[in-house]
Amino acid sequence: MKKRCFLMWVMMAASAGVMAQKEGFGYKFYGQVRTDLFYNSRSNSETVDGLFYMYPKDVAPDADGKDLNAKPDGNFYTLYTRLGVDVTGPTLGKAKTSAKVEVDFRGSGTTYSLFRIRHVYFNLDWGKSALLVGQTWHPLYGDVAPEILNLNMGAPYQPFSRAPQVRYRFTNKNFKLTAAAIWQSQYLSVGPSSNEAGAVTTVKSQSFMKNGCLPEFYLGMDYNRPGLLAGAGVHVSSMSPRTESKYNDNIYKVSERVTGVSAEAHVKYVHRRFLLAAKSVLGSNLTQTSTIGGYGITCTDSRTGEQEYTPLRVSHTWVNMMYGSKFRGGVFAGYLKNLGASKSVTGVLGTGTNIDQLNTLGAELTYNRPNWKFGAEYTWTGAWYGDYTDKARVTNTHLVKNNRIVLTALFQF
């Protein structure tokens, strides 16, 4: 795979001069070389060996009562160096055509330093309306995201995902309507998995959406004028946790489904060197967007083991303020609350489901020159862990904290 991707880019670079001569086509190559050095005062829930940071882990006492997670860590990476090409093509009927291909070296899962697709799509633009087909930012990530150095871009408060989708947009004066059908590729939902011994664990997999035979759906409206963007949207997802049940030493075919409805509102205001942005999400089983949550088991069939579910609800909100140009500083604040389920549950499946609330406060300063950025960021995160109630709320909480420092150097071309 690595060799094939490398060969692809060599061929594109070698043939760029020839391609640019094709009538009606235009090509713009771009990219960045990025380095990240980070330090954490505690072990954390994370991916990419700490580069994509989420929240501090709960206390894990050893035989002497010492906390195994109360240990610092840090590392240095260049994995988010990226390459991309924007393509403009000849018209298709009355539509202007364009495409994007963008990759980085993030890899997948625990395999790093390999090419990974970030964005790959084509777009048909008729002026007031446009149709995008391919992979790009999930609509819940949208056009409003915090301006921070941490590569999680505000997750788990900010929904973070790039996903295959068919997206239609209609613009009339200051208003824009967005409708999308979304699938999953690199950012996946959490669900159950059974080993040979019958023990149930939680895993991330495409199979839950695939077996549900339905994409996610998003519908949103934005108001946009110079310096101001404000809008809201509704998201629906429906998936199948299992198609078979191993119960009482027998296997049964089952038909299970869990459906969640989420809503979000966002705003961004820019005036000269000042930026204020915020987003609030009431999420329902949005584990595929790099946040906490999941669903609970409400009942189990006594003969087949077939289960019924209800989604867990999570409220997450962030605010970001920035000021400056050459020297640019700002603050970020995030708050997340686990609201539990609307019904009593006998068990839960998801990520971070034993967290009652999360708080994050961060501050950064960057030095910016044409094509260059150097920055430092400090982030404090507190997680309140506790015990489940019958409706998957969390009580009897205790606070776990992490201090994180990130140093970044970025060359863009």
TrEMBL record:
Signal peptide residue numbers: 1-20
Keyword terms of this UniProt record: Signal
Highest taxon, organism lineage: Bacteria
Protein name as annotated: Porin
Organismal lineage: Bacteria, Pseudomonadati, Bacteroidota, Bacteroidia, Bacteroidales
